[in-house]
Amino acid sequence: MVMKLPYLGSSLFLVLTLLSVVVSWSEKRLPILSFDEGYSQLFGDDNLAIHRDGKAVHLSLNERTGSGFVSQDLYLHGYFSASIKLPADYTAGVVVAFYMSNGDIFEKNHDEIDFEFLGNIRGKDWRIQTNVYGNGSTSVGREERYNLWFDPADDFHQYTILWTDSKIIFYVDNTPIREVKRTAAMGGDFPSKPMSLYATIWDGSDWATNGGKYRVNYKYAPYVAKFSDLILHGCAVDPIEFSSKRCDSAQSLEELSTTITPSQRSKMDSFRRKYMTYSYCYDQTRYKVPPPECVVNPQEAERLKKFDPVTFGGGRRHHGKRHHRSRASRSETVSV
């Protein structure tokens, strides 16, 4: 049974989630790397600033440039995580990304696993988008978008990518929000080549907010995304030979749980019912038949159809007011 509680319920869920994160980290003893130990600046000159003796990184966007960093190693599978605090106030057009890619090596058949945070106008919430590409399959968009049960600009929250040879799981504060299983139907579209980890902030005015209707307003710059608790836990590989460079017992995925527990799955199902606003599997304007790897959940399908009957139900678009989630809806807890 899903409980709908007042603000106390939401606060209780947040406390329990944070406690589970602490316990999880303690049990796994995953090392938090300093910037110099695991990363290099990608672009942005002075728009990248290192804090707390290398344990935190600030990425800024201004009229001159955005900024970003990249892992020093390539990884074949692993657990990749960061605590992130997003810019506040007017953030339309701003994109903050925490993702894995090998596009610099495999330009025509690259793999990618994305967390993208899409800014918004004042009074509207940040949205999260996840996406997966394998073997250059960019013609098949596998996007999902969500609202959150908290304001990601108020404080740090943990965002995690778990990537194995059989599945990809996206987590927010140790709650799984999406699971992508490798199936025969996906063929080569499942990411399977070594990738680097990236974090960037940049101007996505052309598409990020209402399809480009609202653009970055540099009157509010600099936009600063803050990163800390950086974890790179996986099998590092040689960038030339793609052989294992560092994958000893201390870094093996065997010590990580790659299975979603019944409790976690219940939270994930609840999250998706309440906060998912888009999934390619239900987009009838793009795909008359869902891509073969999609597993249709009737509850998700029904909710999305009510949210946008044109995209998800084949209905006609009405020109009245469109419903938007209010901040008060965060009073609902994701727990069950």
From TrEMBL:
Q: Which GO terms describe its cellular component?
A: apoplast
Q: Sorted alphabetically, which PROSITE patterns does this protein's record hold? A: GH16_2
| InterPro entries noted in UniProt | Beta-glucanase-like, Beta-glucanase/XTH, ConA-like_dom_sf, XET_C, XTH
The UniProt keyword set, sorted, is:
Apoplast, Cell wall, Cell wall biogenesis/degradation, Disulfide bond, Glycosidase, Hydrolase, Secreted, Signal, Transferase
Ranges for the region named Disordered are: 309-336
Q: Which residues form the GH16 domain?
A: 23-227
Modification(s) after translation: Contains at least one intrachain disulfide bond essential for its enzymatic activity.
Instruction: Please give the superkingdom of this protein's source.
Output: Eukaryota
Similarity section: Belongs to the glycosyl hydrolase 16 family.
Its function, per the record, reads: Catalyzes xyloglucan endohydrolysis (XEH) and/or endotransglycosylation (XET). Cleaves and religates xyloglucan polymers, an essential constituent of the primary cell wall, and thereby participates in cell wall construction of growing tissues.
Q: What is this protein called?
A: Xyloglucan endotransglucosylase/hydrolase
Q: Which organism is it from?
A: Theobroma cacao (Cacao)
Identify the gene encoding this protein.
LOC18610004
